[in-house]
Design goal:
about 240 residues, about 40% helix, Arc Repressor Mutant, subunit A, binds calcium ion, globular, 2 domains, Rossmann fold, five-stranded parallel beta sheet
């Protein structure tokens, strides 16, 4: 049975979510603030957290950031719940480490679809085997990246982007395909977000030369080409 933690200060919303999830066989726990959420997280292991952005005291955004930074490999996936519809807030939410985003009000069907997608994605991450391309290594089960055995610290978005590239080498992807695969097609993030994160990821890979793996395909998108380190690169 899959266990879900709801962190939300409005009792009506908690009750509504419980009402949606329990008949579908999920085990649901509730917390109305960050402190209680932490206590429950230390007691049980969860398959997913539904995290309200605005909580009294420590915000859901801060708590998400804390969980993902402290122990990214142990942290369950997080879906942020928020009334904010502004795009920059969504990017901020995803940057904090949230795996997806639901804007209130939402339909039960939408919520269930996103929960299932996020749980599916995170469990397939955990089954994936480590990969290495010329010293650039990723271990999806432990959520770790290293370059020539030195750990590389990535934001959650950059991590997912790199994981996507490393598991799909030598194929060109459009920005919208990358968005669908890395952020999920239910998330309303602009295609420019892809460029922003690719720029950041490349910057981190420059010292070791691995940035050359991520090639811009003019008019199309991007391609991860691990063989490029050994050849003259003709793309920018
Ligand atoms: Ca709230």
């Amino acid at each position: 049975m899959q266990r879900i933690l709801i962190v939300e200060d409005e009792p009506e919303i908690r009750e509504m979510i419980r009402f949606i999830l329990e008949p579908k066989g999920f085990l649901v726990n509730e917390a109305d603030n960050a402190q209680d959420a932490r206590k429950l997280l230390s007691k049980h292991s969860y398959d997913l957290i539904l995290m309200d952005w605005m909580l009294p005291g420590r915000s859901g955004l801060d708590l998400t950031r804390e969980l993902k930074q402290k122990a990214p490999q142990n942290s369950p996936p997080v879906i942020m719940l928020t009334a904010k519809a502004d795009e920059s807030d969504k990017v901020k939410g995803l940057d904090s480490g949230a795996d997806d985003y639901i804007t209130k009000p939402f339909s039960p069907r939408e919520m269930l679809a996103r929960i299932k997608a996020v749980i599916r994605r995170s469990s397939s991450d955990n089954l994936a085997l480590p990969l290495d391309y010329a010293g650039l290594s990723i271990d999806p089960a432990r959520h770790r990246v290293s370059i020539n055995d030195a750990p590389l610290h990535l934001s959650p978005a950059e991590y997912r982007l790199l994981l996507f590239f490393m598991t799909h080498p030598d194929r060109a992807y459009s920005r919208s395909q990358i968005l669908d695969n890395v952020w999920g097609d239910s998330v309303y993030v602009d295609e420019r977000t892809v460029d922003v994160h690719i720029r950041r990821l490349r910057k981190l890979l420059i010292p070791s030369g691995h940035h050359q793996f991520i090639q811009t395909i003019r008019g199309t998108g991007y391609r991860f080409t691990p063989s490029s380190l050994h050849h003259e690169s003709t793309t920018s």
